[in-house]
Amino acid sequence: MTDYSKLDTPEVLAHIFHPQSEMRGSLPEGSTDLDIEVTDGVTLGCRFHLSAPDAPTVIFFHGNGECTSDYDQIAQEYTPLGLNLFVTTYRGYGWSTGSPSVAAMMEDSGVVYDFIRKWLSVNGYSDVLFIMGRSLGSAAAIDLVLKNPDDVKGLIIESGFADTLPLAKALGIDTEKNEILEEECFCNCQKIAEIKKPTLILHGARDEMIPVAMAEKLQADSGARNKQFMVIPGATHNTMLEHGGIHYFETIKNFTDTILGKNDWRSRRKKYRKQQVKG
């Protein structure tokens, strides 16, 4: 088990996590809330936006200043494309209990993963899974895929970071005072180098928090043979969807379809022939 003690000090945690508390609100149509007990007395308030039982599921880890409900409207772009979106969260966020820490985030991701796999099976849903992480969530997503190479179809990273120390300094963490070394942090680059699963990296060209060079480093270090990289012109850290628009979602859909064999030439030819017959 990785030791995250250098990151899990009060001074450092204050910069990493920004918990947003909220009461459980009304559910969007076709969605369900799942409260997952990650340890005794601690639950994560997650939300599952359902498209169809035979659709693949994207397990999504959000950024450090977001909440589960922030993705209620965004999910409505995923489900029409035939993707179930499961938005997980961290301790102390939304209506979740407990307090956030790096060690807890990493450990809880495995509990959530096991829970959702069981839920899909019990409820007659497809077991096809993609893991996606945005910003801070990229660390949980990369770590989870590394630990579950046989069961995950692909990895999607949005606005993710490569080395931790440059980001930590940008967030105001005095890494020298706290004597933090890169190898004592998230180690996204080292981990993604070991991941062979298809990988899609999305990043904003004008990201002011995590420069696009970090995404380029992740892309270069990725061990996947099938890896895609999309830079959204004009997008900052928090305006990916505004600038990417429908192309953002179509890129994700094309990525998942290609991996599942729905975008190969045989499928396109079969579809074309059907259209010709109807015509």
Describe the secondary-structure layout.
Elements: H1 10-16, E1 31-39, E2 42-49, E3 57-61, H2 72-78, E4 84-88, H3 102-122, E5 129-134, H4 137-147, E6 152-158, H5 164-170, H6 188-193, E7 199-204, H7 212-221, E8 227-232, H8 240-259, H9 265-278
Parallel strand pairs: 3-4, 3-5, 5-6, 6-7, 7-8
Antiparallel strand pairs: 1-2, 2-4
Helix pairs in contact: 3-4
Please describe what this structure looks like.
With 279 residues, this protein is of the alpha/beta class. The chain has a single domain (10-278), classed as Alpha/Beta hydrolase fold, catalytic domain (Rossmann fold, 3-Layer(aba) Sandwich). The chain has helices at 10-16, 72-78, 102-122, 137-147, 164-170, 188-193, 212-221, 240-259, 265-278; strands at residues 31-39, 42-49, 57-61, 84-88, 129-134, 152-158, 199-204, 227-232. Strands 1-2-4-3-5-6-7-8 form an eight-stranded mixed β-sheet, sandwiched between helices. Helix 7 (212-221) links the parallel strand 7 (199-204) and strand 8. The longest helix has 21 residues, at 102-122. The chain is globular, with a radius of gyration of 19 Å. The model has no long low-confidence stretch (mean pLDDT 94).
